[in-house]
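Weekly sync notes, structure subgroup
Attendees: PM, AL, DS (notes)

Item 1: joint prediction request from the bench team. They want all two components modeled as one assembly rather than separately. Inputs as received:
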Amino acid sequence: MTQPFAQPFEGLRVLDFCWVVIGPMTTRYFSDFGAEVLRVESSLRPDVIRHGLPFAEGKPGTNRSGYWANYNSGKLGLSLNMGDERARYLAFRLATEWADVVTENFTPGTMEKWGLGYDALWEHNPGLVMFSASMLGRGGPYDSQPGFGPVLTALSGHTNFTGWPDRVPVSPYGAYTDFLIPHIAFTAVCAALDHKRRTGQGQYLDLSQLEAALYFAGPPVLDYLANGRIQTRNGNHDPDMAPHAVYRCDGNDRWCAIACLTDAEWRALAQTIGRPDLADDPGLAALDGRKRRESELDAAIEAWTITRSPDEVMQACQAAGVPAGAVRDCRDLFDDPQEAHRGHFVFMDHPEMGRYASDANCFLLSDATPEYRRAPLLGEHTEYVMRELLGMPESEFRALSDDGVFQ
Amino acid sequence: MLSPYRVIDLADDRGIFCGRVLADLGAEVIKVEPTTGDPARRIGPFYRDEPGVENSLFWQLYAANKKSAALDIASDAAREALRRLIASADFLVESFRPGYLDSLGLGYDDVHALNPALVYVSITPFGQDGPYRDFAATDLTGSALSGFAYLTGDPDRPPLRVSVPQFWTLGGAAGAAGAMTAYAHRVKTGRGQRVDVSCQQALTRTLSHAPQFWDMNEIILKRSGPFRPIGDGRNLRVNFECADGYVNYIQPGGATGGRGMAALCTWMEEHGEGHPLLSGTDFGTYGFGQLPDDVLDAMSETLEAFFRSRTKHYLSEEAIKRRVLLFPVNDPADVCSYPQLAARGFFRETEAPDGGSMTTLGPWVKSSERPLQLRRAPKLGEHTEEVLTGLGLSPDDIAGLRASGAAR
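Output from the run, pasted for the record:
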């Protein structure tokens, strides 16, 4: 037993080549909970979301993206020009002499091209855990196909399952699968680290973003494989629940979702909206009757919601035991009492951006409090890493710096 | 990787994925379920469309690699066995309403006294306390409160969820992440702790940069149908109709996007379906969302026409060859025939509920050290005897529990 109040990952060293979202969100768990995470970048080819909206005060800049800052809080910024052989050697030294974990989500082959493939590193650091998360996994006909998060929802089926049956499918907002996979990807890296702690053996983890994403849209795939059925998008309706929709409320683009899981919830809802006649209608007592008359019920419910605010609707339904949720827009989220109670948005001070909001983790631990620290500037800790972690003399650091190795 | 560890999984359909993730990584996950079967076993569709506790495909997917011990935890005798089981475990996962397990003497404080090293994971819609603690929730109402629905859907219709539920699956995944964080802490401190997951927060974390748009620029992003907003109220179409379904094409801007768009222009010209304005534009010089209005309009109309008369298979295969960033909008049948998944051997055969063979999803990560296991989901009570025997119960004790209805 070491110090009882140490952070869960204190002492862990992560060399992080991850970029965009899926990788950095995975490794942020480590920096939130005490690990030293070196985020390797280059000013010659910055992470694409360093130039992704939104920018503080709307002014673009490498160190001004709120998008980038959110997934890189608490990491150390290291800039290396990987086109230079000396930079690649320094990265190799960090991977073999310093790191417990190396992470990356490039197109397969990139790390090998730099001499940083797992086999090359393993020879010098057999306890190393290396994690790769390419779009489609290593091997196979499409593994070098370029792509990025938003297209994965098309491949995984999420896009086809989002929208109205009479219209072109929409997609869940943004690079949706990028935000699903980090939870399980991080779990796998932790399991590999625990395996190493017990056995001394490192390992290589190859994650295909597509394969992992399919676990978040899996039951219809099994339905096709077992029954040959091709399920599709269904608006907000559900085969096992009715009523089940998002209803217009008082105000501009204001809404509340209501769902009846049980017959009792339906009767309670009908009473709540002032329609005891519907509550007592035997034709609506069971799900199949309500499904047949779903549009009639939706109209009756909306006639009640349309004059009320989403929160009024939600509170009235919840008081009657009916599942209901006000539709929050992004401004509302900052005022949502439950998100606030959980401390969902964390505000940090940044030398260029000023105060900015970042997401907290979605779990609370009873015995450990994450340390949320601001995101680094590009290359902010390069000198620290070279001089303190690799023991580089100042003269050598200056010379390499002048040669553009740290660009 | 996690083979030394035991997980007691009390989570029903709402937290079921957490135990699956830990089981995939090698932990012994004992699903303690009601003697009538876990609620997840009643979720359709069913294998060969035959309802039954062993036939739910949802259960088959998310209970794979687990064991099943069927115990009625409302009975004192079964609860005593469960307490002993918990004393032998490293993790406990549950998804009941806050306070329910406390009422059975199995709340965090009770269990922590019994096994101070246990990691206790609770997966609920909103967490263990706060103003929404006792709110009833479903996937749809959770999608609303998390901010997800507002950003999803067509602008002229209500906000949407995904027709395949996401809320609990995401909460379960986050529970696994929390479990391993707490376990890493236990290695340092020797003590277990509680992991309190909020599915609302887990879904809020999928909103990309949208909350930051409000925080930094006071912009409230809105849903935009099959388009992506690119600033100044302008939209870029990303989902297109094709001859037999839909394809996705996002013009990302920059050098990569420029090369892909040039290749797409050449391809359309070869068929005499190009557009002079597009052929004359150097797309590489524009960042994402920076295209001039007239180019944007010409792009929409030319691409819509080109894609509409061709199949998703032809378009996506040709796109791969030409390195165009076009992808099929896969339905479940397309997923199952996607060549990359087949080449990586993703789909696997496993025992079907009727004893035959069925195809299912293979492991979601490949390990060079210890390939992930894949065992079919357990039958109801399949491991009850094994688990109780392991606790030192005699055959007579077990028969007694079964006779009283406390075990199955």
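Discussion: Chain A has a mean pLDDT of 96.
Action: AL to compare against the crosslinking data before next sync.
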